[in-house]
Amino acid sequence: MNRMKTVVCCLGLCLMSNAVSAVNYVRKVKNAKGIEVTYQSVSKGKVRPGQFLVTVVGNEMSLTKVEDPSHVKTEEEILYKSPVTKEFVDYTALKSYLWAELPNGDIISSENSFVFGKDLKKIGEGEHLGMKCQILRTSINSNTIDIWYTTDIAFRGTPQPGVGIPDGLVLKTVRNGDSVIEAIDIEKMKSDCKVLPTSWGEQMDAYDYKYTINQSVVSTVNVFDQQTICFSGAKLADQLEEGKVYPASGGAIILKKVKLPEVIKGRCIFAEVVQYSDGDAYDRTGSIFTIPVGKEKSFLDMLRNLKSVPAFKSGEVSYPGLVSTEEYDVPVELMRFFTGFGVRKFNHVKVKGQNWVDSVLYKTEITPLAEHLTGEAWIGAYIGNWDAKGHRLSLKLKYYPDNDRPLRRSMPLFNTVNYMEQAGQPYPIFMLNDSLKVKFTLKEPVKNATLYYLTTGHGGWGNGDEFNQRPNTIYLDGKQVISFVPWRDDCGTYRNWNPCSGNFSNGLSSSDLSRSNWCPATVTNPEYIYLGDLEAGEHTMVVKIPQGQPEGGSNSYWCISGSLLY
Q1: CA-to-CA separations, 423 to 272, 297, 401, 416, 511, in angstroms, rounded
Q2: Cα Rg for the chain, rounded, in angstroms?
Q3: Best exposed site among 19, 48, 343, 380 by fewest CB in 10 Å?
Q4: Using the 8-state DSSP alphabet, how is residue 497 labeled?
Q5: Are 129 and 194 in contact (CB under 8 A)?
Q6: Contact 219, 396 (CB under 8 A)
Q7: Among candidate residues 267, 227, 271, the one with its CA nearest the CA of residue 246
Q8: Model-level pTM?
Q9: DSSP character for 493?
Q10: Measured between alpha carbons, how far is 495 from 501 in angstroms, rounded to an integer?
């Protein structure tokens, strides 16, 4: 009996405590001109850093995020400013707003009308902070969201205007049962103030607003803009200026010296290429590269004089500029891509069921090579072709915030892409009777070394290496590291990018055919070949490929490039 009295007494005290809490908050804001409600976010039972502050004055509300005062900003957070975002609700006009000040100072906003309680279904009642709540439920993008709101306080506000707005003060929202935003304090404002902003800036719909917000933190370097790459006989100019585009190597290469971000820590980097035919009907090898200039000789010297740089010798033949040495670094290949068959220029060709694209977008991540993508740099683009009108190409380098990406060192080792074919460079056909050998020196031991390896086979006839599988075998210091067959079976996916591709009697098109690690109108992905921990000193790498036999005047060959990452 005494135990029962104790339980009843405790229960009564608990209920009294909740009632007092409710009365305290109701009394606390009685006759107030405005309130400030502080919310915290809880995910799977753990409080997340930072808070949300809802300010309500009359029928106007603002929502801002408050940083955790104990958080110490990283170097990246200080260097890379983020947009300042807020949300507003005008309960008289029945409108909600998204608002932001971008890092460049521009202001943008988005407006949305709402109806109290629209798409909200009552599922029950509850209490929060000692106040009675109605519980409403909605579903957004397959997420179930419960909204707890009260009318015990004569103010309206919400920490999530985008999930539905009830006619009251929202004290808690629960997403999928375990992601909670809940009020933890309510304060009376001593004086009223203007809640809505004085400027709405550029107004746009919610989708464009979100896109603009996300893109505002991206640093974009426009390298080339619809630049012509064609066979023109062009030679590299004697005097080179920053910011000017120069054709070279007979016109198959364009070059530009650009200023890239000085700080790349905490960033991931993408190369974005847009290409279309301006006259050339065929699929061509394309490459985006940067030119290291820290040694005695560079690819710039090779562009002026093919024989001015160290050569790889195979038998009696010299192949200039294919491997790095103590006095020369090969170009660092950032992206390998292949043009479609005549996209845009030949879109007048009709094939039933095909709708040709206007141009081809190639986008690939190049963060592993970030060390070469900072400060002043020479950036080049290559499309191997003999057409007087050729191709048009645009290139952007985009730097995205990503604090989780470690910055790696990289050392260019070899590059056999035939950049100077139109200027007399011999095809790299030495794999028929030889292997590619390169020596490199590490000044200190390195951990978790990886070979960043791009490889594609060429020889465009039935028995050529473009259409036949050949294993690539890599040795390090005499030991085999890997042997694999680079191959693509998915080329038929990209038929709409190839209007001038030939159609065969068996129903296939040329662009459908499987190839040695490439397809027309696609990017070739790099292979990441793990090498492990390497000691300081000199090392030797060998690449072997059983290149196919020539037929008539046609030769197979392999375009391979590799950089050591560590």
Answers
A1: 27, 19, 40, 15, 28
A2: 32
A3: 19
A4: G
A5: no
A6: no
A7: 227
A8: 0.87
A9: G
A10: 8
Q: Which uninterrupted H or E stretch holds 3?
A: helix 2-28
Amino acid occupying residue 87? E
* Strand, helix or coil for residue 164: coil
Q: What is the DSSP letter of 93?
A: T
Q: Tell me what pLDDT residue 75 has.
A: 65
Which regions of 141-198 does DSSP assign to beta strands (E)?
A: 143-150, 169-175, 179-188
Q: Which residue, 470, 169, 259, 223, is CA-closest to 334?
A: 223
Task: Give the model confidence (pLDDT) of 202-241 as tens digits.
Answer: 999 999 999 999 999 999 999 999 999 999 999 999 999 9
**What distances in angstroms separate CA 329 from CA 228, 320, 433, one per listed residue?**
27, 12, 25
Strand, coil or helix: 465: coil
Tokens, residue 273 = 């290429």
Q: Which helix (H) or strand (E) holds 68?
A: none
To which residue do tokens 């020889």 refer?
459
- In this structure, which amino acid lies at residue 24? N
> What is the percentage of the chain residues whose pLDDT exceeds 90?
89
CB 123 within 8 A of CB 137: yes
Q: Render 98-115 in DSSP notation, one character per residue.
A: EEEE-TTS-EEEEEEE--
Three-state secondary structure readout of 234-250:
CCCCCCCCCCCCEEEHH
The one-letter code for the residue type at 292 is: P
DSSP character for 154? S
Least confident range from 20-24, 113-117, 348-352: namely 20-24
- Cβ atoms < 10 Å from Cβ of 310: 18
Task: Report pLDDT digits (tens) over 381-400.
Answer: 999 999 999 999 999 999 99
| Model confidence at 466: pLDDT above 50 | yes
Position 530 scores a pLDDT of 98
Torsion of CA 188, 193, 199, 204, to 10 degrees: 30
Distances (CA, A) of 453 to 327, 382, 456, 515, 516: 22, 18, 10, 17, 14
Question: 78 pLDDT band (50/70/90 cuts)?
Answer: low
For residue 306, give both structure tokens: 């093919």
410-420 per-residue burial string, b: 16 or more CB within 10 A, e: under 16: bbbbbbbbbbb
Strand bridging mode 107-113 / 202-203: parallel
Chain length of the chain: 566
Say if residues 34 and 55 touch (Cβ distance below 8 Å): yes
pLDDT at 23: 54
Q: Determine the 3-state secondary structure of 67 from DSSP.
A: coil
Is residue 304 within a helix (H) or strand (E), and if so which, with residue range? helix 299-304
Specify whether the CB–CB gap between 57 and 189 falls below 8 A.
yes
Type of residue at 88: F
- pLDDT (0 to 100) of residue 190: 79
313-323 burial, b if ≥16 CB within 10 A, otherwise e?
Answer: ebeeeebbbbb
Q: CA 339, CA 390: separation in Å to the nearest integer? A: 11
d(CA 200, CA 189): 25
CA atoms within 13 Å, Cβ hemisphere of 341: 18
Looking from the CA of 349 toward its CB, the CA atoms found within 13 Å total: 22
Q: Write the DSSP symbol of residue 467.
A: S
